[in-house]
């Protein structure tokens, strides 16, 4: 006799099919492993992670052969833990794909029933992009924190650099009001006020320069210049400052007068040299500062190479790149770093790049630094007849015979002009608006010179100049403004001004500028 037993396994088969289908459709890489650790099934997502074409290729390759060295070491550690009864089934590993790309996986397992037996489902989640995103976020956070630290230090530095000279100015002006101070002390206090004013102006100028550079407002305006004359001017300008610190300032001319003439932006070149020489003097307590230039070839291109060498405190090896960064100095925690804006070298680097050149530094801590920069050397020949015409121009009128209009709406500035021009001109008329200036110029056709403030209520100085030029093309108009931004001079010339000077106005510079048009 036979006994037949029948079991309806439809639902179990359906459940197993559904389970296999869910594995095949899963975006996670999954393999089914029996209790002996042998892989009996892998889904397509896992094949894609490892870059295997078929399940057979997967089975023929040991997975651990694809581990990175570090992941293999971790694998051996997990193996030891399991052999001693431990349970390490949630971990991360890194693998090498066929193309050499590294992928990062998070791996965990859970028990499942497969073919009516206990198996393990090992799940692999590709977390490469997530790890990279986390890394980028960490780097961005660190960069933001560093940037914030540097900007905080910079703002603290600026506060120091503005408040300190202001304290010197306001403090000693108050002391000067004491009638018991003798003349010698007064002169000392005046000197302190002047030095404090110069320091404050230098700080504000640096801030304005870096702001214009950041905004892309600095435009290169080239003309023919003499590099010998520029270097000579720098020597004369810094000589007394170096001497006051007991330093020797050395300028080594190496170009003939003919070679020295080339085409560049004089203002920008002077800005580079001023910042480098000023920086050298600042960080040198004893010894000397040497600067010069020479004509060289770089990749078959003629360049002028400049250097500024000092015997100062030097720069740590790990900071030679940072010193050219905005808001950053050689040692931002160093007290010496707070004796200036910390923007000079950043400005110099930007200026060098504007002229199509490059800048570098060689330095040894405690022994000094050498800053070197090169810019293109372009010649432009001036006709001899033109040169003679320019140099032989005779002055037409002496200053004592001049009739002048000073357009200035600020009372303190007007008082300043009244003081420095006392007994200088034959006639001075003061105006406060653009319209008033036009009317006074029309009423006084004999006017020789107009000092035109750019920012005035109603009509500005540009528009006033434009209107004046409609009926008077001969009067000399010199624009003067507190903006001092790059491009202002060009705007002034375009409006019809003859020249331009920025505030705060230096008495000697203004008189020299006037002498340029009217002679001594």
Written account of the structure:
The protein has 520 residues and is an alpha/beta fold. It folds into 4 domains: 10-126, PAS domain (Beta-Lactamase, 2-Layer Sandwich); 132-214, Signal transduction histidine kinase, dimerisation/phosphotransfer (DHp) domain (Helix Hairpins); 223-376, 2-Layer Sandwich (Heat Shock Protein 90); 394-518, Response regulator (Rossmann fold), CATH 3.40.50. Helices cover 44% and strands 22% of the residues. The chain contains 16 helices and 17 strands. It has helices at 10-25, 44-50, 55-60, 69-83, 128-176, 183-214, 227-244, 257-260, 266-282, 344-354, 384-391, 411-420, 434-443, 461-468, 488-495, 507-518, and strands at residues 29-33, 39-42, 90-96, 102-114, 117-126, 223-226, 248-252, 261-264, 288-298, 301-310, 358-364, 368-376, 403-407, 427-431, 449-453, 476-481, 499-502. The protein has a 5-stranded antiparallel sheet with strand order 2-1-5-4-3, sandwiched between helices. A 5-stranded mixed sheet has the order 7-9-10-12-11. α12 (411-420) links the parallel β13 and β14 (427-431). α5 runs antiparallel to α6, α9 (266-282) runs antiparallel to α10 and α13 runs parallel beside α14 (461-468). The longest helix has 49 residues, at 128-176. It is elongated. Mean pLDDT is 82; it is low at 330-339 and 381-397.
Portion in beta strands: 15-25%
Structural class: alpha/beta
Summed up, the domain count is 4
Highest CATH level, the class of the largest domain: Alpha Beta
Low-confidence stretches: 330-339, 381-397
Supply the CATH superfamily name of the largest domain: Histidine kinase-like ATPase, C-terminal domain
CATH topology of the largest domain: Heat Shock Protein 90
What distance lies between the first and last C-alpha atoms, to the nearest angstrom?
A: 142 Å
Care to count the β-strands? 17
What's the gyration radius in Å? Answer: 38 Å
Described by its quaternary structure, the protein is: single chain
CATH architecture of the largest domain: 2-Layer Sandwich
């Amino acid at each position: 006799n036979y006994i037949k037993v029948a079991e309806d396994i439809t639902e179990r088969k359906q459940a197993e099919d559904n389970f296999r289908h869910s594995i095949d459709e899963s975006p996670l890489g999954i393999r089914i492993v029996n209790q002996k650790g042998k892989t009996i099934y892998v889904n397509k997502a896992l094949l894609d992670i490892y870059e295997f074409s078929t399940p057979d290729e997967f089975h023929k390759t040991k997975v651990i052969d694809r581990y990175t060295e570090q992941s293999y070491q971790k694998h051996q550690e997990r193996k030891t833990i399991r052999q001693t009864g431990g349970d390490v089934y949630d971990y991360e590993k890194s693998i090498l794909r066929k193309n050499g790309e590294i992928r990062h996986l998070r791996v965990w397992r859970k028990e499942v029933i497969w073919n009516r037996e206990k198996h393990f489902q090992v799940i692999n989640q590709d977390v490469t992009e997530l790890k990279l995103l986390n890394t980028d976020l960490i780097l961005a956070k660190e960069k933001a924190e560093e940037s914030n630290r540097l900007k905080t230090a910079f703002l603290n530095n600026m506060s120091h650099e503005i408040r300190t000279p202001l304290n010197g100015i306001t403090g000693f002006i108050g002391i000067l009001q004491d009638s018991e101070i003798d003349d010698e002390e007064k002169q000392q206090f005046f000197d302190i006020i002047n030095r404090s004013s110069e320091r404050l102006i230098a700080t504000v100028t640096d801030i304005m320069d870096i702001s214009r550079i950041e905004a892309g407002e600095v435009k290169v305006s080239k003309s023919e210049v003499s590099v010998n004359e520029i270097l000579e001017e720098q020597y004369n300008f810094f000589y007394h400052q170096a001497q006051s610190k007991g330093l020797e300032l050395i300028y080594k001319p190496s170009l003939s007068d003919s070679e020295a003439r080339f085409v560049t932006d004089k203002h920008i070149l002077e800005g580079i040299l001023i910042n480098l020489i000023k920086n050298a003097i600042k960080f040198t307590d004893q010894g000397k500062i040497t600067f010069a230039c020479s004509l060289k070839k770089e990749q078959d291109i003629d360049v002028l190479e400049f250097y500024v060498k000092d015997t100062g405190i030097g720069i740590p090896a790990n900071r030679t790149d940072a010193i050219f960064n905005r808001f950053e100095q050689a040692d931002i925690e160093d007290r010496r770093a707070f004796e200036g804006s910390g923007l000079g070298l950043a400005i110099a680097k930007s200026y060098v790049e504007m002229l199509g050149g490059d800048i570098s530094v060689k330095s040894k801590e405690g022994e000094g630094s050498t800053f070197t920069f090169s810019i293109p050397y372009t010649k432009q020949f001036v006709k001899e007849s033109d040169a003679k015409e320019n140099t032989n121009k005779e002055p037409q009128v002496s200053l004592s015979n001049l009739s002048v209009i000073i357009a200035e709406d600020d009372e303190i500035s007007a008082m300043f002009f009244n003081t420095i021009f006392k007994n200088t001109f034959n006639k001075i008329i003061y105006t406060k608006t653009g319209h008033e200036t036009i009317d006074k110029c029309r009423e006084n056709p004999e006017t020789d010179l107009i000092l035109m403030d750019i920012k005035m209520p109603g009509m500005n100085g540009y528009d006033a100049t434009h209107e004046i030029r409609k009926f008077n093309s001969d009067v000399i108009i010199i624009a003067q403004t507190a903006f001092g931004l790059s491009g202002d001079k060009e705007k002034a010339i375009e409006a019809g001004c003859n020249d331009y000077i920025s505030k705060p106005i230096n008495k000697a510079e203004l008189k020299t500028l006037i002498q340029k048009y009217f002679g001594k």
